[in-house]
Amino acid sequence: MTAVSSDTTTPDSGLVFPREGDGRRSTSATGRAVVADALRAVDPTGAVAASQESSWRSGYLPHFRRLVEAGLTSPEAAVDVARAGLASLHRRMRVATGGDADVALADWPDDLGGAAPRTVEVVGEAEPVTELVLPYRGDRLRGDALRRRVDDWVRDGIVEPSVAEAVAQVVAHPEWLRLEGRTVAVLGAGAEMGPLPSLMRWGARVAAVDLAERPELWQRVLTTARAGAGTLVVPTRGDGPLERTAGLDLLVEVPRATAWLAEQPGELVVGNYVYADGALNTRVSAAVDELTRRLGEQRPGTALAFLATPTDVFVVPRDAVEHSTRVYDSRSGRTKALSRPLRTLSGGRLLRRQYVVGADPGINDSMVPQQGPNYALAKRLQRWRATTARHDGALVSLNVAPPTRTRSVVKNRALAAAYAGAHRFGVEVFEPSTSNVLMAALLVHDLHTDGGPRHAHPWQDEAYAAAHGGLWRTGWAPRSALGLAALLGYGATRG
C-alpha cells in the first residue's frame, strides 16, 4: 500500500521536510507549525497552544481535535482552517534536487526522476460484473441480501443510515459500475483498501500509479487487471517485462506524473490511496496534494476521491449521539459494576461516556496515539483538500472507511489486539475484501451523484455515507476503551 520506496528514494531526495536552523529536517517542527497556521485566523489561542507544544510526538492529539472544533463555528471557518493548513504545508515543504539548496514545490524541476514514461494498456479478458456483489464472511451478497446486510449495519450503529441510501442507489443502477467515459487514476494501485480490483471487475478504465522497481506489486496489479473486464493503463520505462519497468515514484516525479495523467481521456478522477510508514507518509501525501493541485489547474473539472480513516476526529449528527447514549445507558448490571472501579482506578480515563448527553452535533475522537502525528497530518491534509475543492465547485468523493484488518494494521501488535477485541464494544472490524468493495461502491455512487448531497457545513459532507465501523455510535469514548479492547483481543491475535 506504499507509494514511496526506500529502495529508490533517499531521505534527502524529492519532496522533503524543510531544514531547521540546525540543519535537521524536523517532522515535529513542521507538523506543529502547520497546525498552528491552520488555526491562527479562526482560533488564535489554539494556534499559540499548538506552536508551544513541547512534546509534539506525544502531545499532538488535542491540537488535531481543536482543528475540527475551530471549524465547527461556521462553514466559512472550516474552509478557512483547511485553506490555511494547505497553504502552510505547501509553503514549507521543499524539493531536494541534489544541488546545494532545496527548491519550493512550485519550482519542482520537470526532469527529476529520469526519462518520461510511455503508456501501456492492459485489457481484461473477462466479462464485466454487472451487479454489485459484496463479499462478507464467506458469502457473496447481492440484491435483497445485500440491502438487508447494510440495514443490519445501520441498526447496529456500524455505518451511518446514508450508507444504506447510497448502496441502494448503486444496486438499483448497475450500469453505474462501469464508470463509462471516465478514467480513474488510482494513486497507490496496489493498496489493499484501494478500488482497483472492483473497478477492474466492473469494466472501468483505470490509470495505475504505484512504485517503480516493485515487480511483485506490479505482478499482482497486472494479474488483477487481466482477470478483470476493464482497461488498465500503466506508466512504464525501459525494456523488459512490464512488471519490472512499470511505475512512478510520486516522491520525486510529481511533474512527470501530472503530465502523464493530464493526457488521459474522458473525465479524470484522481483517487488518493497512498500510504507509507512514519514521516514518509506525510511526504508522499504532500506530493499527492501537489499533484492534485497541478492537475486541477491543467484539467479543470478533475474529480477527487479519498478514503478518510475512521481513527480521526469527526463531527457527528445528533442521531449518532443519541444512539451512543442509548448504548451506554443500556449496559448490563455486570458491566456497570465492573466499569465503576476501572474508572476510579484510572482517574476517569477508562470506559468514559462518549458524548455529552444531548450534544447536537457531537465530536467523535477516535484518534489512536500509536499512529503518530505524521499519520494524523497526512490524513488531515486529504480532508482539507476535499473541503476546499468541494467548496470551489469540484466533484469530491470522500468517505469514511471502516476499521479494516489491512497488513499495515495487523503488523502493529497493539492495533491488531485492539481490533481483535473491538467487537466487545460494538465496533466491527472489516476484512479487506469487504471494505474494498463497499468503498468502491460508495465511490461509484458519488461519481454519479455529483459527490452526493451538498450540505450546509463541511462536517455534514464528511458524515454522509460514513462507514465508521461503529466508532461513532459506540457508548464509550474510543480511546477510553482501546486498552481494554487490546487486552481482551490479545489472546485472539496470539492464536
Task: Please report which band the strand proportion falls in: under 5%, 5-15%, 15-25%, 25-35%, 35-45% or over 45%.
Answer: 5-15%
**Low-confidence residue ranges:** 1-9
CATH topology category name of the domain at 118-318 and 356-494: Rossmann fold
Task: Say how many strands there are.
Answer: 14
Oligomer: single chain
Report the CATH superfamily of the domain at 118-318 and 356-494: NAD(P)-binding Rossmann-like Domain
Rounded radius of gyration (Å):
22 Å
Net shape = globular
Strands of the widest sheet, in order across it, are 4-9-8-7-10-11-14
Describe the largest sheet.
7 strands, mixed
Helix content: 40-55%
Averaged pLDDT, please?
A: 93
Tell me what the CATH architecture of the domain at 118-318 and 356-494 is.
3-Layer(aba) Sandwich
Kindly describe this structure:
- The chain is α/β, with parallel strands linked by helices and 495 residues long.
- The chain has a domain at 118-318 and 356-494: NAD(P)-binding Rossmann-like Domain (Rossmann fold, 3-Layer(aba) Sandwich).
- It has 20 helices and 14 strands.
- The protein has a 7-stranded mixed sheet with strand order 4-9-8-7-10-11-14, sandwiched between helices. A 3-stranded antiparallel sheet has the order 1-2-3. A two-stranded antiparallel sheet has the order 5-6.
- Helix 1 (27-40) packs antiparallel against helix 5 (75-92), helix 5 (75-92) crosses helix 15 and helix 11 (254-262) runs parallel beside helix 12 (279-298).
- Residues 1-9 have low confidence and may be disordered.
Structure summary:
With 495 residues, the protein is of the alpha/beta class.
